[in-house]
Amino acid sequence: MARFRLPKNVQELADWYMRYVSPLSLIAGFISDNLFLTRRVDLFLTNAVFFTYLIVAAVCVVVFNLIEAGRLRHPWALKALPLLPVVAQFAFGGLFSGYLSLYSRSAAVSVSWIFVIALAALLLGNERFAHFYARFSFQVSLYFTVLFSFLIFFLPVVAHRIGPWMFIVSGLVSLCVIALFLLLLSKLVPEIVRANRTTAARAIAVIFLAFNVLYFTGAIPPLPLALKDAGVYHGVTRAADGSYALTGEPLPWYESFFRYNVVYHATAGESAYAYSAVFAPSGLSIVILHQWQRYDTTLKQWVTTDTISFPINGGRDGGYRGYSVKSGITPGSWRVNVVTQYGQLIGRISFEVVAASTTPALETVDT
Prior knowledge:
Largest sheet: 5 strands, mixed
Helix content: 40-55%
Mean pLDDT: 81
Radius of gyration: 25 Å
Number of domains: 2
Oligomer: single chain
Number of helices: 9
Number of strands: 11
Distance between the termini: 57 Å
Strand order of the largest sheet: 4-10-9-6-7
Order of helices and strands: HHHHHHHHEEEHEEEEEEEE
């Protein structure tokens, strides 16, 4: 068995970090992001952390290329060179970890799984990317990816607007920022930029196109909106103090977390209530829709039977609450899509309606 020993120089310290610390920091970082960092995208702390990671990553790219071009020859800089990929990896890993936590909370998995899996792959792959950080085109491509991912939800928080036009603005701002960054690098290390500008430009174009395809096909969740709670109930009432009483069938403990294929026992002529709580940042108001759909076994497709819309206002940590009613619901497979006014899927309530001769046992919870 190999004997464990502490590093004796900077190079050994970098190798020691990659071997022992990096895997543990990946797990710890992801857990802490889920618990503390990304509960709300409009919090100062959340965006301050993301900004810090972006600045650290940009500084690493600049310093690394200054050393590579021979313009930074101070002894301390040369000694620190082996640690630069480690610091860059830490910054990019922090960004991908935060994004994965944020986007996965907002995503309707059945639609947005491609983008969420891509983020997870980048997060896990980041642990093996250290030797790639020496490549200029890789540095620029990765930085454009994290920059675009950040602006997708940051600009709507600042502008209090959401929708396709805000996504387009986010993309254009990302292109402008990366262009200014490349302009800065061209002044500092012109020979490196000149040798790699074609490869870097092509990579940025591919990433930009991929983001647009993913967004306009619904694979990127409609951040900064997020579905906090949703379900189908036998009754929903709103009290004078603004609280809601939800009357429904008791769920097994595991279904209370996943709410997958919930069974709804309906008596003849009974109405069903779809309840949702959608988080939106402070100052953001938008119209959301409940699309009631029944699976047609003859057509073998989902058919929309009702669409109910209502406005929501941002700022409440638990999400803005609302509900819709479907009268005379019939047996079969049903789902209610919670979507934006632009047709972007925020979340989905799926359930199976089963005919019942008597009303099942019910319980009421307040929210």
